[in-house]
Each structure stands twice: as C-alpha cells, then as structure tokens.
Amino acid sequence: MELRVIHERCSGCGTCRLTCALENFREVNPAKALLRIRGRFPAPGDYRIDLCDQCGECAEICPVEAITQLNGAYRVDTEACINCMVCVDACPKGVVMTPHQDEEPAICTACGACAAICPREAIITAPSHTLQKEAG
Amino acid sequence: MRYGYAGTILRIDLDSGAIQKQPLPEALADKFIGGRGFVAKTLFDELLPDIQPFDPENRFIMATGPLSGHLLPASGKTHFGAKSPANGGYADSNMGGHFGPQLKYAGYDMLILTGRASAPSLIVIEDASVQIRSAEAYWGQGAIVAETQLKRDLGDDYQILTIGPAGEKLVRYACISHDFGRQAGRTGIGAVLGSKLVKAIAIKGTGSLPVHDVEAAYRAGKEAYAKVTQKPGFKEWVPEGTAGITDFINEVGVFPTRNFQSSYSEHHKAINGKAILKELKITDKGCYGCPTPCGKYGHAKTKSGEAFVEGPEFETIALFGGNCLLPTISDVAYANYLCDELGVDTISAGVVISWAIECYEKGILGREEIGREIAFGELETVEYLLAKIAAREGIGHLLAEGVKAAAEKTGQGSDRFAIHVKGLEWSGYECRNSPSMMLAYMTADIGAHHARAWVVGHDLAGSWSDVNEMIASAGEGPRELPEAVVKPECADYVIESQHVRPLFDALGICRLQFMELGFEPENYEKLFHCITGQKRTWEELLAVSERIWTLTRAISLKEVPGFGRAWDFPPERFSTEPITSGPNKGRLLSREKLERLLDWYYRARGWDAEGRPTRETYARMGLADEAHVLSAMGLCRPEAG
After folding, report:
1. Chain B touched by A22 (CB under 8 Å)
2. Does any domain span residue A10?
3. What average pLDDT is seen over chain B?
C-alpha cells in the first residue's frame, strides 16, 4: 500500500500516531509510532507529517543487510539486525524509529491504519497517478 | 492495575523539593472518575478556610481522566484546580492541547503541587524522572516566547505549559498557556502557579496505558472516528470552529456589546468566523485526537503590529470584538495574541477592560488615574491596559484584581456594571432575555462561566436540534424574538445540563463531539467499558457528575466565609437597565424573577434557601463523610420539617 501526505490538511491532532502504535504494537502509546507530526509554531504556523516514503536509504546503508523491501515496505530483520542504529541516523525523514528503545529499529509497515483514521485526509492511500494529482 | 488510568498520583512539595508517588486510590477513581472529580475531592480534603489563594499551602492540581490519552475523539483535556484567586472558593479550569495525555503516558493521572519554590523554577518530568530546575532564564518571558525557548532547550517531543508575566505578577485572571495557543484560562489558575514560583512544566511520556480489552477498544475507537466524521454538522463545524456561532449569537441578541449594555453588535460580520478565514487563517489546529479542530491558527496584521496567533475563538470575539467593540477580526486577533503572550484570560481581560472604559466614559475613573484617554473600539486602549495589568503598574494594579474587587475599591456605583458572578468575569453570552442561561451563569460553581451549562438554546428554541438549525440559518439579520418565559423548567434544564458538560471534564475528554455534533451517549458507554473494564450506564456516569457538582458547592461553602445565596446573583445592570439595542432591546430580568429562578433551582437540587445542600442531599450523593465535616462547621443541616 502506498501512502502520501498532504501537509496542509494536517491539524496536528496526532490520531495517526496513536493508531499506528495500536495497529502495530497493540499499545496505547504514541511514543512507539512509526511516523511523526511536527508543529512549526509560532512561525510559520503549520504542521509537517514525517512518514516513510520508501526511499530505501536505510536498506542501502545497513552494514548487515538486515533491511529489505517486502510487499512495498522496508522491514528490519530482527535476527540479522545488530542494533547499530546507522539506519536511524541515515533516514532523511527521521522516521526509522526505535519503539523498543535500544533494540532493533522499526520502519513504517505501510499498513495504512494512519490513513484510514485520519479525520483530515492528510494521509491518503490511492493509486500512484491519482495521488500525484491530488497531492500536487 | 486499574485499566484506563496511569495508576499514580505525583506530588511535588516545592518547599522541600520532596517528590512523592502514590498509587491511585481505587475509591477515588470509583467515586469521582477523574479530572474535575479528582480536583474537587482533593480540594475538599486538603484545603482549609484560612489558606489564601496565593499562600504556599494552596494546592495546584492538574488531573486527567480515565479516557484521556486513549483512542477516541478529542481525548486531550487536562483539568486544573486550586483555591480560587477569583473568590477564595472552588476553582477549576481546563484546556485542550496535548498535555494531559503526556502526563498519563509519563505514568501519572494527577499532579499536585504544594509549597512555594525558593526561586523561579521549572518542573521537568520524563517518565519516572521528576526534576525541579531553575527557571531564571525564562522568568519574565512571554508565555509563548518561553514555550518556544523551552522546546528548543528540552526538545520538541516535550509538551510544555507556561505562565506569562501576568501569572508571575499574580494577576487574578492569569492563565496557563500550552501548545502555542491553548489556555486554561479561567479563575486565575496561572497566578496560582506563579505564586509557587513555577514558570513552566514540561512533560515527556513514553509509557503505555493499560487497557481492559485492547482489541475491542481499538475497534471502538476506530468506529468512533468514522461515526463522528459522518455526523451532520461535522463539515459545517470544522471550517470556522467556535467562531462560526458569532452571527447566530448576535442575531438572537445575546452577544455582549459595550460592557453588556447591549446584546447586539452592528459590526459582527467584520469579526465572525468567515472574517477569520478571509483575513487570518493559516491552518486548522487541533487538540489531541480531535477530528473537529476549533483552533484556527493565523497571522494578524494591525496598526499596532503583526502576530502569529491561535484564534480568536468565539469567547474572545465576544469579549474583545463585541464587548470592547474592536472593529476588525485582525484587531481582535491581536488583542488575543497580547493576552496569550502576557498570560491573561481573554474573557476576564475583555470584561475588566470594558468596565474600565465605561468608568472612564462616566467620569468615575479619570485620565489622571488611567494615564491616558481610553475608548471602546480602540486597539491602542486594549494594548495599553493589558500591558499595565500584566505589569501591575498604575491603573493596572487596580484592574489586575479582577472586576469585582476593582469596582468595590472604585465605588461610585461602578459595581452595578461590573459584570461577574462570584468574582469571576462573565463570558460571552448576554442573558437578559435568556433566563435559563442567566441561571446557569448565576449557579456555575466557579463563577460566571458558560461551559458548565450552555443553555441559551433552551430559551430560544427549547431543544438542541432546533438550535443547530438556527445556527445554520444565521445571516438573515436580527430575529423577532418573543420574551423568554421565566418558569421552573428553566431550573430543571440548567441542572440537567450542569451534569453533562462537567461529566466530560471528569472523563478527561472534550464534550464538543457530544454537544455540538450529537455523538451519542452509547458510544461513550462502550468506550468506557472497553478501556476501563467497568460497565457504567450514561445515567450512572451522570450521577457521578451530580456528586461532583454537590462537592464543588460544598468546597466554596467551606472555604468562603458567608458563602451562599448572595453570591449567586448577577450584577444589578441585568435587573435594572434594559438592553439598549438589537432584537432584545428593552428587556431585563427583574430581581424578583432572579430570586424565583434561584428558589426553583435550590429546591430541585435539594439545597436550602441559602443555597446549602442539606444533609439528606449529601447522603443521597454518597457524600455523608463530607457532610460530617460541614456539619461540624455549622454549614450543613437536615431538611427543614
């Protein structure tokens, strides 16, 4: 599933993060979410949604090739991962997360739960050609 | 473990620096739910009549509810409480934003501050770590400047609340600021924090909340969002938020204008929700988990300056746009920004300033005392007085005490138009043709506040659905309205309503989806069950809310010498001076009608003629222990006869 963000629609409510933690970890704990919302206040006064765009830089930099793409989303092989956190620092969007603290990082699974619940339609799923048109 | 709750009460004594963590008592959660209920029970048990609001012995309480921070629409409310700087009795104030949920993720349902720090302090909480640090670097800063600086210093993932200079100077209507535009505005709660020399509290929580049935709660949460966003009214409410009711409130003649001389403002279209969209708005800004963001964040340009500011919301529009007659939405937004940065409640500030201007017009306060000419409709007047108030300089020292104290000190009949109840300045609804709403203001536990029972619609239309239709039809110009009937049902409706909104303050969530969008009670029953594991019907939850209402009355009776019936009246203006213009021109509510409203209200509540709950009423509410305390003080008697 492909996800796209429309920053201008975001109102910063964070429902996506709470839902992400519930969907992926069955916990009421947005600190475990695999996406971020940044409020830019007082100026310019808006929100930015930081969500994995499947750029693959994490996989490229991983020294033990523990990150591979599966069904359109990058996954961390917890057996192979050596917890070096190089991918965390390398992610251009800062969304290779550490929900298990010092243990292996985690990356957005592209499950779409955030998009399904977003009351603002600021995160959306749709075929790529539609997305580009709408997000443009 | 208690499902839904974080499970711990955090106490910080600022005198000694002692930090105490107590398990949340089961009985407290059972009997008082959370939020406002926790605040009330703690204040009843721990306050004493000889404690003054700014004494170290006063409590500063911050409490969440069992639903705060969970997946359901608008679970971001935080409730604050203390002995009231407005009147010495019960005070609470709540805000949205993201703070309460973080407190719970950090592991705490409630935070209680006692004592006074020896120097300006900052409290930093990260999960189990609780630190008291120096706030010298931030003391004196504006509330939003300080929040910006603290985000830089501590990290963007902290949620922060601050006070502004007004809180530091103990202005009696100083607020707490959070998230660059949400405030706990009422009752001077920010001044209580200031009296403890605490500039800010920063919280980061990374823990998980315990849930009774996580699968069911997740499913119910998702369903709740789907249902709310499909509600009729969702698409109408979101674009303008609370500002969207401006035209309606004005057209039905309940919009405070010129220090409540009138209830109709000719220039309402220049200060309404549409004006916000046209002149100010950058983004919608939502509280935690909220699908219907009231916050409209924008940029205002005025002759006095430019500012980024959240709002103005309806109350600020009413008090600065209507009551102080600021002519444009940009002017109102700039006044809003000044209040936010200085850290004062826009409602109280708007009332205090409009009172001062009327005093000046009437020659009661002169140019020499004020320091310049002041006038309705002039942003410079508002800017000048706000700066004086926040610094407690010159005329500001008088005005910083609130409109009741200022009028008592000024004399010359200025108390007749000092618009407050119980020392708390009146919010955005003029009620001379709205007896139910008048009674709601008279009997609201903290003073003249609208959010305990918003019953304007009862007087105008008799039911919620009709009112929503009326709001939707605004724009047709002033209505011909019949004189509202003063009848016993006014009291019944007020009482019923006073249990509904405050229930949400106990649950720790926003009432908007229920009140404004009609999201049904059974949804909340289901969520409450999935999250906490307890089956409580809506009626059972409302019964807890009634218990809390009785307890907040008891707190003011216990803390304020002579508290009772005399404290439940509005200023004389409303019963002696007819409305000067608009659809309700000529209307007033006589003292005799006000007395009758109170009689009906007290009787229906099981209170005596002085407004004191009887021993039987306390017993019926499950407050027999509290009744013993009050009996010993001579404040609780059995029913007569």
Report:
1. yes
2. yes
3. 96
